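anyone seen this seq b4? input:
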Amino acid sequence: MVQSKATSVDQYLAELSPERREILSAVRQVIQKNLPAGYQEGMQYGMIGYYVPHDLYPAGYHCDPKQPLPYAHLASQKNYCSLYLCIYQDSDDMEWFSEQWAKTGKKLDMGKSCVRFRKLDDLPLPLIGKVIKRYPVKKFIQRYETLMEDHGPKRLRRKKKST
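predicted toks r here
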């Protein structure tokens, strides 16, 4: 499954094979245990999403302001599971994450914005908890706005030139 049409997390999990459901449920439990107050869980982009709701950040996500500001996502893909993390936007966070991951002795399989894993043992769950806990909502919003100030205009200029 790449993008589910499920309208609730329970429905999403029910659509999965028992093996995938067990894996994602375990990762979800770590996320929920470590998720700072203010974030909400729900379906976003066909995946389990953790996001800043519009009542806390009315501007929403710059790519689609109707969407709440994304923080993390958890998904079952065709050949693996994915954990999309907010850290991909910041090189300091990525460096910290990579260093911490290396200390676990596990192999990091990371795409542009997600960690890919096939089984639960592929993930250092305590590190996943630390990453999720790393940004309380206010700090995440400030970081997001700073990144948009620093990088947003460049993206907008590029789009204008190519159209």
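The first strand starts at residue 40 and ends at 44. The two ends are 34 Å apart (CA to CA). kinda curious what u guys think
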